[in-house]
Structures are given as C-alpha cells and as structure tokens.
Amino acid sequence: RSDATAEKEMTLAIIKPDGLYDNYTDKIKNAISDSGFRILNERLVQLDEDAAMSFYAEHSSRSFFSDLVKYMTSGPVLIMVLEKENAVADWRTLIGPTDASKAKITHPNSIRAMCGKDLQRNCVHGSDSLQSAQREISFFFKEKSPGSGSMGHDEL
Ligand code: RTP
Ligand code: MG
C-alpha cells in the first residue's frame, strides 16, 4: 500500500568495510531507493573493537566472534537508517542470505550476491527483528548528553 495511512517502519543497514572498500556504495544505495526505502539518516564511522563487540554482543560466545570483530573494524562502515513499510523484513530479503557465496547461487538478485564474497565478507548488515532494529538505531543515533562522548564511533 502507498496510502498515507500505511505504517512505516525503520531498520538499520550497514555497508561493511568490504562493501565500502570495493566501492559498492552507489550500487547499494540505488538498490535501496529502487526498492522503495528512504534513507533517513547516515553516518560514516570507523568502529573500534569495543563498539564492534558491543554491536554484535549476541554472537560473543560464537567461534567466529573475534574474526567478526576484526572484520568490522578493518575499515570504515556506512551506517544508515532505512524507512519503509515492513522495512525490517524487506531489507533482510533484499540483502539475501548470510553466506554471500551461496547467495550468488540461490538469490542472485540480492545485494550480498552482488557485492559479498563469502560467509564472513557479506558487505551489508540488516537488523533481524523490530526489536533489534530499535536497539541498533539507538546504538548509533541516540542523542547523547553533553560530555558523554561517542564511544567507539569515530566520525569520518
Ligand atoms: P548481519 O547481522 O551482519 O546482518 O548478518 P546475519 O544476520 O545474516 O548473520 P549473523 O548470524 O547475525 O552473523 C553476523 C555476521 O558474522 C559474520 N559471520 N561469520 N565465519 C562464520 O562462520 C561467520 N558466520 C557469520 C558475517 O559477517 C555475518 O554477517
Ligand atoms: Mg545478524
């Protein structure tokens, strides 16, 4: 629906270090707008180890956690708040499955098929639920009281 009563939803998208390094920003942003999302806010940041660990805290006990933190701190990332009806689920669908090498076969039109490489280097992030989206948006965009600093988010 596109009528004024349609419920908009917000989700958090990240272009990960490999996506920026390989210059996929414009292609990803085109896919975002072609799919009806609006970019409400964006920041280019360099995550430090603490920020990456805290952002992906749900995975702290996984064997891939330290590799994930190394990957996410290996270069700048572009953080975006996307808005659309059903934004959380629709962004997950648009990015495709976690393993980009499999996405190339099973979801060839997905963003991860376009710009990802493998299970780790999959070029984009998407919130996995409405609750995650709210946590992740405030993680990067919450108003900070003066003097509270900006832990782990070095603005570029
Ligand atoms: P994301 O949170 O970044 O949107 O990715 P996702 O939901 O599709 O996958 P998730 O299970 O949340 O994993 C987070 C990120 O960790 C890296 N990963 N590495 N080596 C491995 O086994 C492995 N598994 C996952 C990926 O970068 C994945 O996106
Ligand atoms: Mg996830």
Please describe what this structure looks like.
The chain is an alpha+beta fold and 156 residues long. It has one domain: Nucleoside diphosphate kinase-like domain (Alpha-Beta Plaits, 2-Layer Sandwich). The protein contains 8 helices and 5 strands, in the order βααβααβαααβαβ. It has a 5-stranded antiparallel sheet, with helices on both faces. The protein is globular and about 45 Å long. Bound molecules: ribavirin triphosphate (RTP) and magnesium ion. Ribavirin triphosphate binds next to α4 and β4. Belongs to the NDK family. Its EC number is 2.7.4.6. Its main location: other. Keywords: ATP-binding, Cell projection, Cytoplasm, Hydrolase, Kinase, Magnesium, Metal-binding, Nucleotide metabolism, Nucleotide-binding, Signal, Transferase.
Rg, Å, rounded: 15 Å
CATH architectural category: 2-Layer Sandwich
CATH third-tier fold name:
Alpha-Beta Plaits
| Ligands present | ribavirin triphosphate, magnesium ion
Low-confidence stretches: none
Order of helical and strand elements: EHHEHHEHHHEHE
Assigned CATH class:
Alpha Beta
Give the number of DSSP strands: 5
Shape label:
globular
Cα-to-Cα separation, first versus last residue = 37 Å
The percent range for strand residues is: 15-25%
The CATH homology group name:
Nucleoside diphosphate kinase-like domain
Strand order of the largest sheet: 4-1-3-2-5
Class computed from helices, strands and strand pairing:
alpha+beta
Number of domains: 1
Subcellular location: Cell projection, Cilium
Pfam family, one: NDK
Domain Nucleoside diphosphate kinase-like: 8-148
Protein name: Nucleoside diphosphate kinase
